[in-house]
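lol so apparently i was supposed to do this last week
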Amino acid sequence: MSPSQFSSAGEANISTTQLENGFIDSASLVNSEKAVHELLQQTPVHGTDDHLIEFSEALRTVAKALRRSAEGKASAQAEAAEWKRKYEIEKSRNQLLKQKGNSSGGHNGDSHCGCIESLGNGYTTNGHINRCCGKEGICCEEVLLDGEADPRNHNKMMRKASFKLSWMCKGEKSDQHKHDIVSFEKGDITTASRSSKQISLKWETPPQTVLVLTKPNSTTVRVLCADMVRWLREQKNLNIYVEQRVKEELLSNSCFFKFVETWGDDREFSDLHTKVDLVVTLGGDGTVLWAASMFKGPVPPIVPFSLGSLGFMTPFYSERYQECLDSVMKGPISITLRHRLQCRVIRDKAKHEYEAEEPILVLNEVTIDRGISSYLTNLECYCDSSFVTRVQGDGLILSTTSGSTAYSLAAGGSMVHPQVPGILFTPICPHSLSFRPLILPEHVTIRIQVPFNSRSPAWASFDGKDRKQLAAGDALVCSMAAWPVPTACLEDSTGDFLRSIQDGLHWNQRKTQSSDGLRDL
Ligand SMILES: NC(=O)c1ccc[n+]([C@@H]2O[C@H](COP(=O)([O-])OP(=O)(O)OC[C@H]3O[C@@H](n4cnc5c(N)ncnc54)[C@H](O)[C@@H]3O)[C@@H](O)[C@H]2O)c1
Ligand SMILES: Nc1ncnc2c1ncn2[C@@H]1O[C@H](COP(=O)(O)OP(=O)(O)OP(=O)(O)O)[C@@H](O)[C@H]1O
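anyway here it is w/ adenosine-5'-triphosphate bound
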């Protein structure tokens, strides 16, 4: 693929991104970075000048397209700076080889001085001082000083073997599934970014419709909900959606709330994401799980207010809701993209049910346990096509990283930052001394099979709800879902996560030792 093809591929990815439609789709976010990375991975490094010119053109186009989002811009700038550096070194090396009459490496360097003209795309230069001809840029002499190539030893100059990497997708090599984070030019493998960075959401048009979700059976929540809905209408002139139960509660208070909307049938319910700009939750973590479960596809940004006991996913203080909502609606806001797992139950007895049965999306975890049976579970676990292990115990938890601080933690799993893409594989009371929990990469598909010789059926539950029986021969298949749950941060992903484990779990709290033996107060 030529660099010019890359530029259009990059633009196509970005113009279709669902960020522009107000929804956050992890695949689209990845695509925007992927465009640049693909470009970087495939652009010929030992090219002619034409290639270099084409390359800089392509990079400019992609970088321009990426400027549409702050995240994309930051990424494009970082990549462009790095590539400009490599471009300069490469060009200087070409010239050096040409000057020394070394044509064995297939280089076609310039005939003029080794200074590189500015790319002219607004990116800063890398700070090299010109010592050769007074033009802006880097000279081959500097490359030599940097030790990239030594003219005194050019006869001994060794070229590293060239190679390409490709990524396997379900047993097949595929360029489309090439990972976007590793570059391998000249045999040096580097990683640009290892997981998604802090994401910032900036409104291009102000939010107009808010869905307020509340935990049931709480007077405090009911009072706060009425107050907030009134404020959102009177001060912000917003459209408000609530659940039918909440609408009735509000109307029983005052007919002022007549403007509040709800949904009637399933179709209106499943179209909710097309109307709602922002979801506000009033409750604990369970209310955030509830909110996530309402959206089977894209999820609007959620602002979770803490009115529960622990509140790992609810960083906002309800006492200061006006200030918080003001700042969220003004933006920009840091968000955590919480990955979800997509689970399918595959029945042995009804093979066609697979097509009909809706996948279930979980934000915390899917648990496969022994239910009311007093027998050990007997679960065969596969990761893609590899057999992993057999779970004989109380069961198994397949958890997201957001769910790592919930049931999985109680079963001995690690706590994992919610932006780390991975699937936790945590046994529940395994009857074995060596069954330690695992964390698997995000791209795998996990299959939990109840074998025909199992003494009893197993039970699957999804975020602690909706129990389904898995009879002998049935299986549960689980992989990362395409639709994450964007939750607003009070500080940022990392700050909020650390605060939640410190405040919620008192993680590693201990009196500090002092040098003189006295206890610090
Ligand atoms: N032994 C256990 O720890 C255990 C057992 C069953 C269910 N659970 C958890 O309860 C969740 C359902 O929550 P619910 O509120 O509907 O039920 P719930 O009302 O029974 O509350 C469960 C508790 O888990 C906490 N919790 C939920 N999600 C969390 C997260 N991501 N990080 C840290 N703590 C979290 C909640 O704050 C609450 O205190 C399930 O997804 C499961 O993770 C835990
Ligand atoms: N809008 C809702 N409709 C029905 N059930 C809900 C709704 N919101 C929350 N729930 C359920 O209510 C239960 C309690 O909610 P939540 O976890 O938010 O409160 P909590 O238990 O007081 O707080 P915490 O989870 O911090 O201990 C959960 O099981 C949750 O699934």
